[in-house]
C-alpha cells in the first residue's frame, strides 16, 4: 500500500490552456526528473490565507504515481504539494 507524502516544493510545470482559458498541466520537473502526466483527476481552489488561493490538480503519471500540483493564482508559481509514489518492486 502506498501513502501520501507531503512535499510542498516549488516545481517547473509545462501547461496548456484550453479554448475557455482553463490551465491543464501536461508535464513537470521534480527533483531533476521530468514526469509526463497521463491522467487528470479532480481540480479545486484552496484558500491558503493572506489572499493567496491555489488551484489544485490531482494528476497521475504513466508509472502510476499520483501527485497534487498547486498553482498559486497570485504569483503563478507552481508547487508539488503531495506525492503518492508506487513501490519500485523488489531489487534483485
Structure description:
With 92 residues, this protein is mainly β. It has one domain (5-84). Helix content is 0%, strand content 63%. It has no helices and 6 strands. The chain has strands spanning 5-17, 23-30, 33-46, 54-61, 66-72, 77-84. Strands 1-2-3-4-5-6 form a 6-stranded antiparallel beta barrel. Strand 2 and strand 3 form a beta hairpin. The protein is globular, with a radius of gyration of 14 Å. The model has no long low-confidence stretch (mean pLDDT 89).
Describe the protein's topology.
Blueprint: E1 5-17, E2 23-30, E3 33-46, E4 54-61, E5 66-72, E6 77-84
Give the tags.
mainly beta, globular, 92 residues
Give the strand line-up of the largest sheet: 1-2-3-4-5-6
Number of helices: 0
Largest sheet: 6 strands, antiparallel, barrel
Radius of gyration: 14 Å
Query: Which bin fits the share of residues in helices?
Result: under 10%
Secondary structural class: mainly beta
Structural domains: how many: 1
Provide a concise account of the structure shown.
The protein is mostly beta strands.
